[in-house]
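Sample intake sheet
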Amino acid sequence: MTDTTRTTRASPDTRTPGARNTVYSVTVGVTGLVILLQALWAGLFIKEGMDYQDTWVRVHDLGAKASIVLALVALVIAVVTLRSRRDLIIGTAVLLVLLAAEGHLGSLIGDAPWVTSIHFPLGMALMGLAVWLPFRSRHV
């Protein structure tokens, strides 16, 4: 006797309002992980009254560049595969622009220490956006 009832899972159509993409979710999730690590790496070289440790400053700089590249990749994935998800496209574009601005602000801190008053809160906002995007992408 054979079982004629088969459960099949339809793959989501990328043009429907509820489109999802696992590659997008993973890419933006990894971007969020790098953003989280940025805070850790900054904590390893920011010490009150002490000079910055060059090694961790370089790691932090590379992390900034990696997060920008990952956000760009996530934006391309969103534009190509999730055309109907304007929320994700706009959110990912905002993430990319803010990461670029954050990276630029970070490069100014040595010459203008007051920039940290913008750089740190913007980093926290980026962390929130990077957490919101993958969760939002799972919402259909």
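Comment: DSSP finds four helices and no strands in the chain. The longest helix spans residues 54-81.
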